[in-house]
Design a protein that fits this description.
- This protein is mostly helical.
- It has a single domain, classed as Hypothetical protein af1432 (Orthogonal Bundle).
- It has eleven helices and two strands; from the N terminus they run αααααααββαααα.
- The protein has a two-stranded antiparallel ribbon with strand order 1-2.
- A hairpin with a 2-residue loop joins strand 1 and strand 2.
- Helix 2 packs across helix 7, helix 5 packs antiparallel against helix 6 and helix 7 packs across helix 9.
- It is globular.
- The two termini are 26 Å apart.
Length: 205
């Protein structure tokens, strides 16, 4: 099952997602939606509802894991499976470390994975700035940890090159193509029908 936007936000409330994580997820969803729709327009087979739902819920397990060493992505996968959201489970569960697929074949997973890497907190940033943030926050000045992080970050650039090759705009243009203010998206005031069609309620552009 692919949940509607309204159902996603009910889960966000149920799992007490912190406000800053919620804002991050909204911006990730806006980037992912824009990319998915542009790729679909170019003939690539992607489910926009799946992209939207997976982006909104990619950090559904994070709040509960903040004060522990628990893997929030793995917990997010468990949450999705517990609610019958098998289509989302692998996207959510693998959104931290890239799971490669056949080169040139786009999937909803690629789009959500990349969109998440373009947002630090609720700010749209370049991959370079995101990498700097991750190195500073998680590197702990440990050469081995820093090397592992840099290796992961190389996969981000491969995904970016793959996604943008058929698009008419560059990665840097994303910051101007979406609404960067999570507070401007009034999900609560939308009807269930509208929520099932995220492009009708301005996911941010």
């Amino acid at each position: 099952m692919i949940p509607t936007v309204a159902q996603c936000f009910r889960l966000i409330d149920e799992y007490r997602m912190l406000a800053n994580i919620r804002d991050h997820s909204i911006i990730v969803a806006r980037i992912a939606t824009r990319l998915a729709e542009e790729l679909r327009a170019g003939g690539h087979q992607l489910s926009v509802p799946l992209v939207v739902a997976a982006a909104l819920l990619h950090d559904i397990g994070k709040t509960a894991c903040l004060d522990s060493d628990r893997d929030h992505a793995a917990y997010g996968r468990e949450i999705c499976l517990a609610h019958g959201l098998a289509e989302l489970a692998e996207i959510v569960g693998d959104h931290v470390r890239f799971r490669d697929n056949a080169l040139g074949v786009f999937s909803e997973y690629d789009v959500v994975f990349y969109a998440d890497k373009r947002v630090t907190h609720e700010q749209v940033v370049s991959l370079e700035k995101r990498e700097m943030y991750i190195l500073e926050r998680y590197g702990r000045n440990d050469p081995q940890r820093l090397a592992i992080i840099r290796e992961h970050c190389r996969s981000w650039r491969l995904v970016e090159a793959r996604l943008f090759a058929p698009l008419a705009f560059a990665p840097a243009a994303l910051v101007e193509l979406i609404d960067r203010d999570p507070a401007t998206c009034d999900f609560a005031g939308a009807t269930e029908t509208m929520l099932a069609e995220p492009d009708k309620i301005a996911m941010g552009y």
